[in-house]
Amino acid sequence: MLKKFVSSIAALALLAGCGASGGGSKAAAADQAQTIIKDLGMAEKLEQVDERVIQGLFFFDEGMVEDASFYIANDKSADAVGVFKTENPDAVAEYVNDYLKATKEQMKNYYPDEVFKVDNAVVESDSGRVVLIISEDIESAKSEAKKILGK
Amino acid sequence: MMKKILLTVLCAALAGCTGLKKAEEAAETASPEPVSYACRTMDYYDYMTPVPPSDAIEESYYSDALFAGDSRMGSLYLYGTHDNALVEYVTSLNLLLIDTMPADNHDDQITLYDILSTTDKSNIYLLFGINGIRNRSFDPFAEKLQEILTMLRENNPDSDIYIILAYHPDKISGLDEPKLTEQLQDLNGHLITLAQNNYMYYLDTDNGLDDDQGTIRDEYVWDGLHFNPTGAHAFEDYIATHVVRREKYVKEICE
Question: pTM for this structure?
Answer without folding.
Answer: 0.82
